[in-house]
Write a structure and sequence with these properties.
Structural class: mainly beta
Shape: globular
Number of strands: 9
Mean pLDDT: 88
Order of helices and strands: HEEEEEEEEE
Distance between the termini: 43 Å
Largest sheet: 6 strands, mixed
């Protein structure tokens, strides 16, 4: 009886440890409350196939009023941040972002965007650092997402 219970507990712990662990990397003036990615979030790494688009949806609240929101994305490779340019970094002027500025203190707010994974990107493991910044460059939300470009 006890070995069966122990095995079930062990399997549960292993399955929870495999879930995607998204880290807060320094949100200053906001708090993210939910993150959805267009990858299998039950795995420990978000797989990013080349020549595809990866989507992010982020729910957050604000600690102060904000007049502009900008997305800044980097791939952290061997502790070196490499920019992932976005065509639609200015969230307030991007119709599909879900945001209409100015944003008032509180919320909640819902942000969406898509990152192209280009064929030219090397196939390797990377931490994706996705930041939403205000007009003063302060982080509304900062996320570190373990990923692998495939």
């Amino acid at each position: 009886m006890y070995p069966t219970v122990a095995a079930i507990i062990l399997l549960c712990c292993l399955s929870f440890s495999r879930a995607l662990d998204i880290e807060n990397c320094g949100s200053e003036i906001g708090t993210y409350t939910n993150v959805d990615l267009s990858c299998d979030m039950s795995k420990s790494v978000c797989e990013l196939p080349v020549d595809t688009n990866v989507s992010i949806s982020l729910d957050f609240t604000l600690e102060k009023d904000v007049s502009q929101v900008f997305a800044v994305v980097h791939g952290i490779i061997m502790d070196i941040p490499v920019p992932f340019p976005l065509n639609n970094a200015a969230a307030c002027t991007t119709p599909d972002s879900g945001l209409t500025c100015p944003l008032s203190k509180g919320g909640p707010y819902h942000y969406t965007n898509t990152l192209p994974v280009k064929k030219s990107y090397p196939k390797l493991s990377v931490k994706v650092k996705w930041e939403l910044r205000d007009e003063d460059g302060k982080d509304i939300a900062c996320l570190l997402i373990p990923a692998k470009i495939k």
